[in-house]
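Researcher: I'm preparing a figure for a lab meeting and need a structural model of a single chain. I don't have an experimental structure, so a prediction will have to do for now. The sequence is pasted below. Please return the structure as tokens so I can convert it later.
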Amino acid sequence: MFSRAYRAAVTVPPVAWVAVFLLLPYALMFCYSFWSVSSAQTIIHHWNIQNYRELIQRPLYWQTLLRSMWIAARVMLFSLLLGYPLAYFLSFYGGKRKDLLYQMVIIPLWVSYLVRAYAWKTILGSDGVLNTLLQYVHVTHGPLNFLLYSPFAVVLTLTHIYTPFTFLPIYAALEHVPRNLVEASHDLGASPTQTFWKVIFPLSIPGVVAGATFAFVLSLGDFLAPLLLGGPSGIMISNIVVSLFGAAYNWPLGAAISLGMLIIVVSLLFLSERLEKKWSYS
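Model: Understood. Here is the structure written out token by token.
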């Protein structure tokens, strides 16, 4: 239907954009991961695997990566526990207020990430809103120090930030559940609970998988929330990468860690795609 010149004009710009701003940086990161830094803080273009050997031998990086994955897993779980019931309610019981409630859910995405993170810092601080309220009603006699600068604060903040990203694909999946199947289930004598577990939930699994992937991957790569609210016990692997590319000026080691995280993320995305195809409804 279209000429070769038209197809080239439409195809070349996005392909060039992806190649320059995505594939080329990945290639540079791959190269940097096999280089090293001299004592004079200069990059030595000598190919070796010392950076990967250091990642394996030093427990700090493995412990931080496992802590990051544990924090991301908790954020994923809490986001699903909050996002799925909300999406289910809007999809099946929203009625005329569905569009309004939907807008209220996604409005927080319009607010700056830093504003939301600093808001939680204000709420959870020693002199913050929550500690002040607890002391005012005599629930506690002093500020609760574990609320801020802890993994708890990081999980809470990331759950608040990434729950809308979990909600959106689940809501889309529930909206595509054929209502005639739900009505048929009721006509055959199934209870609402049986209808949910036998009909609705299996058909919404692709959205659940997509939402869980969003929450986990985005939380795993986050570094601002741990920096602002995590403290020493809430540092994540991305904070180490930022430090290596910044003050430490060890770009090769930072590139090696980044490449390892990229492999983990791509593997998760590949697994998520396979699961979505397996459970998709056609």
